[in-house]
Amino acid sequence: MMRHARAGAFACALCVLVLCGCAEKGPVPYPPLEDSPPDLRARLMAHLGENLVPFWLENCVDEEHGGYLTVLARDGSVRSGEKMLVTQARQIWAFSRMWRAGYHDARIERAAAQGLRFLRERFWDDEYEGWYWQVQRDGTPDDMAKKTYGHAFVIYAAVEYARAFGDEEALALARRTFDALEQHAKDPDNAGYKDFMDRQWRAQPGDFGRTKTMNTHLHLMEAFTELYAETKDARHGERLREVLDILTDRCYMAEHGCCIDGFNWDWTASTNEWFGPRNKFTSYGHNVEFAWLMQRAAEVLGLPPERYRGIGLALIEHALDYGWDAETGALYMGGPWRGPATRRNVQWWVQGENAVALDWAWRTTGERRFLSALRRQVIWILDRQADPLYGGWYSDLRPDGKVSNPDKATLWHGLYHALRGCLNVGRGSLD
After folding, report:
1. Same-domain status, 293 and 308
2. Which of 87, 93, 161, 427 could form a disulfide with 414 if both were Cys (CB 3.0 to 4.6 A apart)?
3. Which residues, at least 6 apart from 336, have a Cβ–Cβ distance to it below 8 Å?
4. Residue 273 is inside which H or E element, if any?
5. Tell me, what's the pLDDT at 34?
6. Rounded CA gap, 200 and 78, in Å?
């Protein structure tokens, strides 16, 4: 009971910050959701302060060992103490981003600082460089593999921490991680980065060992964008442009308006046992995430925006044509290049990224169909994806909105996607 009382008090404090004038105690009723951008933005920002941040701040900080607990039941109680690199880094990013957005509660700063400290002390490999993939709750290494995907999020988190708190050591950590990727994961013969390596940075055996993925390069683009924006180091800009070109020229299929994920090292489409069958399908969530992230990358690089706008809008159109439930406002997981969705579950991260993409499409084109879709997406998030009792978002729902699994978070589910969806749409920006 005390846990929820503290969370409610914090929610009220954040509501004052966000809505600038709310002095009532307890939850503040949402205003009616009209078909207008200001109302959509206000309601998402209120949800962020009242629901999302209190849940994660109250439940995920591991006061005993450091870092973050991310396998949580619906009420926030701990289901497992395993800690995976990606979600630990994403939580650092999330609390740092909250601070930079003006949420200056001291607990947010402490949550970010202790997370970065745990990451440095428990995930870094002093012998071979780079970051372990997973540790136990107390920081004992569980999986020492080196995966480029995880390193991308360390860069992303460290840059955001440096921005939020003026920490030059955090920016140096981002640079050091970039350098480790350059030395150990960069493909010397082809564009891009190898994905799956062992502790000593040797390619893992089997299908994964000779694979590159769209998903990993999508998040390298995300990380390199913010790294280059902060450092203006020519090396960082060169790699950002290389990864952007890979995604637009290799992963995106203009004739279908969507992307595939699995490739060989030479960027021919993979036909191996794992990625071959998956390449017959596309991920709507990754497509819409790519749609808006590439706009930010092109802006930071100073590239003419027209081409990237065209690709971004095509990716969003594809998702709306094949993966969108116009009646409920949910975006499904995936399906064939052409044809209706076949993976019809509704995951939290897809909804957050789609909200940002739809808002960008509306602001870019002024077409009300995108605003209408954004409105329905926001209604789904607030009425179905969000848990009104305990806070946070359900990880996975059925098409009818019923909860598939009552657990609130997993090794992959932190605050990152939901925070970004609410904050970017709430502020009407891509930063």
Report:
1. yes
2. 87
3. 280, 281, 282, 322, 342
4. none
5. 65
6. 33
* Residue 349 half-sphere exposure toward CB, CA atoms < 13 A: 17
| pTM beyond 0.70 | yes
pLDDT tens readout for residues 92-110:
999 999 999 999 999 999 9
Same domain, 47 and 97: no
Angle among Cα 421, 228, 202 to the nearest 5 degrees reads: 90
pLDDT of residue 258: 98
**Is 262 among the domain residues?**
no
Domain extent, residue 195, equals 64-236
What's the total number of domains in the chain? 2
One domain for residues 109 and 181: yes
Secondary structure of residue 65 in the 3-state scheme: coil
Per the DSSP assignment, residues forming a β-bridge with 83 are: 135
Rounded to an integer, what distance in angstroms lies between the CA atom of residue 9 and that of residue 353? 29
Q: Is the pLDDT of residue 305 over 60?
A: yes
Alpha-carbon dihedral angle through residues 223, 226, 231, 236, given to the nearest 10 degrees: 40
134-135 sheet: strands from edge to edge: 83-84, 134-135, 141-143
Say which amino acid occupies 362.
Answer: W
Whether 244 maps to a domain, the answer reads no
- What is the SS3 assignment for 414? coil
CA 280 from centroid of its chain's CA atoms: 24
Residues 19 and 80 in one domain: no
Q: Domain check: are 15 and 93 in the same one? A: no
pLDDT at 4 over 50: no
Q: Which two tokens stand for residue 194?
A: 């190898």
Task: Determine whether 234 is exposed, middle or buried from the number of CB atoms within 10 Å of its CB (0-12, 13-18, 19+).
Answer: exposed
Assigned token pair, 15:
């509501």
Cross-strand bridge partners of residue 146: 197
The tens digit of pLDDT for each residue in 12-47 reads 445 444 433 332 223 334 455 566 788 999 999 999
**Rounded to whole angstroms, how far apart are CA atoms 122 and 57?**
21
Partners of 203 in the β-ladder: 197
Which residues have a Cβ under 8 Å from the Cβ of 199 and sit 6 or more positions away? 125, 128, 132, 144, 145, 146
- Indicate whether 411 and 429 sit together in one domain: yes
Q: What is the mean pLDDT of residues 338-354?
A: 98
Q: Check whether residue 297 and residue 381 sit in a common domain.
A: yes
Q: Which two tokens stand for residue 218?
A: 């999508």
